[in-house]
Fold tRNA-specific 2-thiouridylase MnmA.
Amino acid sequence: MRVLAAMSGGVDSAVAAARAVAAGHDVTGVHLALSAKPGTLRTGARGCCTIEDSHDARRAADVLGIPFYVWDFAERFTEEVIEDFVDEYAAGRTPNPCLRCNERIKFEALLDKAIALGFDAVCTGHYARLSIVDGRPELRRSVDGDKDQSYVLASLRADQLKHAMFPLGASIKPEVRAEAAERGLAVAEKPDSHDICFIPDGDTQAFLTKKLGERPGVLVDDETGAVLGMHTGVHGFTVGQRKGLGIDAPAPGGRPRYVLSLEPVSGNVRVGTAERLAVREISGERPVWPSAMPLDGVTECVVQVRAHGGTAAAQAEVVDGELVIRLAEPLRGVAPGQAAVLYRDDLVLGSATITSTRP
């Protein structure tokens, strides 16, 4: 099988490519150039998107003895990921840029080009398990629960997953690093990337302010309607946020305040106590079914609403094209713009983008 291995320059994608080679596939490595000005990205690369990473990816490909190319996806990345990120924050939502990158760059733009060039599959270093059962893909959590990335892959369609390979899904990270060292890959001890790759210094608020400018508004007590302070833009906040609110006094009884909702038109940021964060129902738009199996009526499942969050028991169904999730117990800090991913045990059932919540 002809396989295109997406090589970020980190240890995971290098070992994934190595395993594809070891499995007997005809493998070609490709690094995606995602920045129009790569010199502005951080130095001391940590596994994603820098010039140093492209060099690390090339060296890994040389060790594996496979052809290697750099493809320029900077314009597409800017439009589909960076501009989407900014637009979502401006609209009072909290996006996940890694999920969007997987969806629109690695498994849309990249996969489409790979198929057009005659490749059968795209191989990546994601920690998730993928199998084909009765002609349908099944996406499952990784064996390594700490590294599991099924959440950020849950927006992929079945036709995309049929052309995907995730060779690391049955491994834990220490095994992957050990294998990299055994294979002579210099990235064996390279640190993982944790930052948003297009925000070099990690200051998301400063990045958004530069893009959007200041949009002054007020912080409002959700219970009393009292104005508690001023802010420079709703893009500086996310639902569930506690720190950095700029409010001097706590709520009555010394209780901390949290962001409850964002109103981009009025500029209001509504805040309140933790109890007022609790929701029992979540609605999501654009449902995706990775196994091409839409929910059939009310379905028992668990839901995950943050990339590194836990799960909550729920019932889910599709109502008028929207995914409606009713929680068994209240859940706090559910932010519109994030993905709600449904699981049965370790199997991904589906996902949708959160649009609203109800107590």
User: Anything to note?
Assistant: The chain has three domains: 2-189, 212-276, 278-358. Confidence is low (pLDDT under 50) at residues 40-47. Residues 159 and 220 are 46 Å apart (CA to CA).
